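Final report, Chapter 2: Outcomes

The project's central promise was a pipeline that accepts a single protein chain and returns its three-dimensional structure in a standardized token representation, suitable for archiving and comparison. That pipeline is now operational. To close this chapter, we reproduce one record exactly as it appears in the project archive, with the input sequence first and the structure output second.
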Amino acid sequence: MLLLLLLVAVAQPAERPPQYSLESYLRLAGVYGSADESPLGARERRAAAVHEIREWPSAVLRAAVADVQGRKLRASSASPDSVAIDTVEAAVLMHAEAGLLALRESILDAAESHLRASATLFSWSRQAASEVRTQRESLLKVSKKRLGLDILQYDVRPRIDRGQFSLALAAGALAAGQPITARAYAEDARRIAPLDPDVQLVFGAVAEGLGESERIRGRESTASRWRTEARLALATAISHEAGALADPSVPAQPTPGGLEARLRLGRIALEDGRLEDARRWLEEVDAKSGDGRQRHLAWLLLGRLAVRQGQTDEAIAFFHRALEACPTSQVTALAWAHAVERSSGPAPAEPLVTQALALPQRSGSADDPWRSYLFGPSGLAEAAFASVRRKALGQ
């Protein structure tokens, strides 16, 4: 008899573990989206929610998202069959953050699962919100007292801006070293907000990264096309700087993003052999930027430009200045050593090479601005995502 009971128990389909219920999913989204007087407390709760949701299997995530779509969208959740717009938007951002973290760790299946969940909930919430607004307009034509309905429950107002959300995802994917994933988001942001200089800057950086990937693969014609795309986007970013559109006759004051665009235009011009254009862009960054990373990269690239023109002493001076500004940059140290070898022979360059090889070599490391260059403008990914979250959740 005992054996029979065991066989029946084994034959029964396993129920979904309670920790993977819709209720626990909505609780996690609520934790992620909850406000707090202390920013540190809010950050800790968001991190805990993201950590927990990343433990959920992909199949369970899909089931939870489907369950959410089976509920009615309301301004606030007043019944078991409804879900609040704030909770849905918190889930959208929670999955996006989990997906970007997975991209950084090169866990591509998990990244795809979370980013798809984020996109699915985002699209559904927009469609459902539109339907709710239509219902509200109909209800407003009828006596509220007769229907006994709270019209406020139908006042659904999504707060995530699609253009800014796509920008944040593009910048985040690029910062994770995934320009191919970033491309779709950057293109979407540019379709929605073509006059936004940050959107054009990020698209330009994505195109530049794709061009570099193609160049490494030996596909120079494709790389050249991507560099052209990058050049056009970066030039557009500069033309849309603060004040440029208001009065085109007055030169706009360069913004940090505009200076980043100039830096990247200088690097692309150098790659394409347009040396005078490169010098013009890079010298403007040198003269006007107060950002140490931008100036370091400008000096490094000006040194490379001098090498291309056979001006070895000038190259040594630029490399030395860049290395003084960032002593942990191995790329700069090796460039300096190579220029010294060209000028004075291998003997004085040998100790410089030895010192350079002892420096960090991690890709994307902040210890070496050049190694993080193709991962996008420094700090933009975090700032863009934080801006979207703040406007959507008040955090």
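Archive annotation: The chain has a mean pLDDT of 85.
This record, like all others produced under the grant, will remain available to the consortium after the project formally closes.
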